[in-house]
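[User]
Protein folding is very new to me. Any chance you could explain this protein sequence and its structure tokens? I have pasted everything here:
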Amino acid sequence: MSTQTFTLPDVGEGLTEAEIVTWRVAPGDAVAVNDVICEIETAKSLVELPSPHAGTVGELLVPEGKTVDVGTPIITFLSGAPEAAAPAPAAPAAEGSGSVLVGYGSGTEATSRRRRPAERPVRSTVGVIAKPPIRKLARDLDVDLTQVTPTGADGEVTRDDVMKHAEQASVFRNIQTPEWGAVREETVPAPQPAPVGLARGIAPSRASIGADESRTESIPVKGVRKATSSAMVQSAYSAPHVTVWKEVDATRTMELVKRLKASPDFADIKVSPLLIVARAVIWAVRRTPMVNAAWIDTADGAEIAVRHYVNLGIAAATPRGLLVPNIKDAQDLGMKDLARALNRLTTTAREGKSTPADQQGGTITITNIGVFGMDAGTPIINPGEAGIVAMGTISQKPWVVDGEVRPRWVTTVAGSFDHRVVDGDGMSRFIADVAAVLEEPALLVD
């Protein structure tokens, strides 16, 4: 029996490292070519890594949770395995197989006899009808499928069922008041004067943060969080941010959303106010192109690249962290196609299947902080862009209409801009245009 070593490949993203998130196989497992052997997380995406060999798994060389460089040996295979060890045919993946590597063929669900480690609680879902991608989504969102009410055909749990259950759970997660500890009072050492190094802005060592490990938890910064933090620091300290905002009567937007939901043309499409916001941003970009531009440093100084297209980024909070995939050439999409694109983008992001290509080339971004109940914010611009729009929550408030106070659906539209690219009049005009569309969506009809 010969041994073959498989090294971490370059997944075609221009990245140099990745984390081994989950091994799908164990030593002694029989695998076929293209069986998924593990999931790796790069700075931008979660990728299923297919096996390049057929045979028996020899040794897992890298533990789960460890980040290694491209080219590092991660697993060995034993070729010439006995006939009895041949794997059963892999079942085809339902609803897409996720990311696969160029040159390895299409991804499939791996045939594996590996048991989960004892420290990972596994809920029994026997009797629950759900496709593999839905089960993975439930695991990522920590949703117990046995507690989800199915709405699909023949009692099947759908993606919307899982998302609805997760959203409801997040609302009530902290409803129980924590119990007080058994110790009513304790004495802790008084803080000592900061060392000279700290006064100069030098970070303390890990040992000086706190000796009582039970009171402090350390979370490694890696993957998406590492990439996001680096990008945000770069943006915040390189582009001079200016934020403007405007309160808006969005009653007619809410009426339009209600009509679209009831329309047979949108029967299979999820419609939300974000759709109208997206159309408003695209419309406003056409009137103020500089918000869709980018500052570019060159050898001779700098230049501003004005894009005459819109790759519309949508900031998405996912179990892996903040992702900003974008809809390519959104300016060419009608209302229905844009709604479908938004649905695909948000669903793919939440399932952790956004590819690096999905997140590259954005020109302007929308962040919907209203889903968290926030009225407004001062978002940080995505690197390579000059503007980002924050959409606040839409709630009923008293509003003066024709001299009378009436209940109206009100929201706040905010925008942060790179002041090197966009002047005050431009950013104000842009936000005013977005607000105008939300007040009167009929402006979208050319």
